[in-house]
Write a structure and sequence with these properties.
- The complex is a heterodimer of chains A (247) and B (13).
- Chain A is α+β, with helices and mostly antiparallel strands and 247 residues long.
- Chain A has helices at residues 9-22, 71-78, 137-147, 200-206; strands spanning 2-6, 25-31, 34-40, 46-53, 59-62, 65-70, 86-92, 97-103, 107-113, 131-136, 153-158, 162-168, 173-179, 185-189, 194-199, 215-220, 226-232, 235-241, 244-246.
- Chain A has two domains: 2-113, Roll (DNA Polymerase III, Chain A, domain 2), CATH 3.10.150.10; 131-241, Box (Proliferating Cell Nuclear Antigen), CATH 3.70.10.
- Chain A has a nine-stranded antiparallel beta sheet with strand order 6-2-3-4-18-17-16-10-14. Chain A has a five-stranded antiparallel beta sheet with strand order 5-1-7-8-9, covered by helices on one side. In chain A, strands 13-12-11-15 form a four-stranded antiparallel beta sheet.
- With 13 residues, chain B is an all-beta fold.
- Classes of the chains: A alpha+beta (247), B mainly beta (13).
- The interface between A and B is medium-sized, with 22 and 13 residues.
- Chain A: Sliding clamp subunit that acts as a moving platform for DNA processing. Responsible for tethering the catalytic subunit of DNA polymerase and other proteins to DNA during high-speed replication.
Amino acid sequence: MFKAKLESAKEFKKVVDTMATLLDEICLQVNEEGVRAAAMDPSHVALLSLNIPRIAFEDYQADEHEIGIELEAFKKIMNRAKAKDKLILELDEERNRLNVIFENQGKRKFSLSLLDLSGATTKVPELEYHNVITIKGDALKEALKDADLISDHVIMRASPYEFKIEAKGDLNDFTAEFSSEDDAIISIEGEEEVKSAFNLEYLLDMVKGVSKGDIVKLYLGNDMPLKMEYSLAGCELMFLLAPRIEE
Amino acid sequence: KSKQVKLSDFFKV
C-alpha cells in the first residue's frame, strides 16, 4: 500500500511544475522511508533527483512500490490546487492508478493512470566538488533572468570569496557579482578559482520552483556538471546539469 | 564557440 498526506498541495505543485519542465515522466520509488525518484531529461543534459523523507508528510504509510507517472497530466491536476488544500497521494493497486486527492472543505479526487516505468530508474552519480556556493534563491533566479536578456548561456565563476554569473552577447554583456560579504550569500567555500559554462534555458527550468526565502546550494568545478540543491516544503531536489565546453 | 555536452561524458548512465 501507499498513502501519503502533505500539508500543502500548493507547495507540492511547485515540485511537480519543476519536474515537468525537465522531464516527461518519472518513476517514484516509495518505501517506508519516504519517496525517491531520479531521471534524466530526454537529451541527457540534465538529471533531476527528488527525495521526500517520510518526516515531510503529515501522514505516511508505504510498502515498496514503483509508481510511474506521466508528468504533464500530473502537473495539470496539481494546477488545480487551492491555497488551503491538503494533498493525499494514494496508490490504487487494483486499478493501477494514483489517486490525487485535494482535501479541504470536501475531497476532490483525480485518478491518474500509471505508466510501467519499472527498470527505468536512474542512478545518481557521486561527483567530487571543491567549490560550494550557498545563495538566496531569489538573487540567483533574478541574475539568471538578467543574463537571459543577453545570451542563451552563462559562465559561472567561483573563487574563495566571490561568485559571478556572466553572459556575453554579440553587442552587450551582463555580469552578476556576489561576494561573501553580500546579503545574497550565505557562504562561499572553495580554495581555487573555477569556471564552467551552462545553458540558460536549463538553468531557468531548474530554478522554476524557487521563491523568496529558499536557499540554493551550487557545486561548481572546471568544465564540470553543475550540481544544484534546494528544498521546497521538505521535498529535497537535486539537479545535475552538463556544461557547455569550448570547442 | 562552445558546445553542449551530455552527462554521460562525465559518468556512466
